[in-house]
TrEMBL record:
Superkingdom assignment: Eukaryota
UniProt keywords, alphabetically: Glycosidase, Hydrolase, Signal
EC numbers for this chain: 3.2.1.39
InterPro entries per UniProt: GH, Glyco_hydro_17, Glyco_hydro_17_plant
Protein's name according to its UniProt entry: glucan endo-1,3-beta-D-glucosidase
Alphabetized Pfam families for the sequence: Glyco_hydro_17 (PF00332)
SUPFAM superfamilies tied to this protein: (Trans)glycosidases
Residues in the signal sequence: 1-20
Keyword Signal: yes
EC class name: hydrolase
Amino acid sequence: MCGVALLFFSLLVLSDAIAARKIGVNYGRLGNNLPSAYQSIEILRSMRAGSVKLYDANPEILRLLARTNIHVSIMVTNDEIISIAANQTTANKWD
Ligand SMILES: *[C@@H]1O[C@H](CO)[C@@H](O)[C@H](O)[C@H]1NC(C)=O
């Protein structure tokens, strides 16, 4: 009986962990009274988010995220994407 309970609990923990890794958050920074970068990353961590999409490559946010296991996607703006896609030198200089 104890073994069954333990197995059930393990599956529950496992499925919970898998579900948490599937949470993805879009992290935009346009607005008023937004939490600081540090506070925002702490919120992502408390949500146990598995991935985050950023709308720009803010160095402070990237440094904070580098200390987490959160997967990061960084967006390129519409007016940048054509030149970045067409020119490797431009892509290398993008930040
Ligand atoms: C790519 O961009 C660089 C500067 O950003 C420029 O010097 C170079 O001519 C461009 N290359 C092409 C193939 O357009």
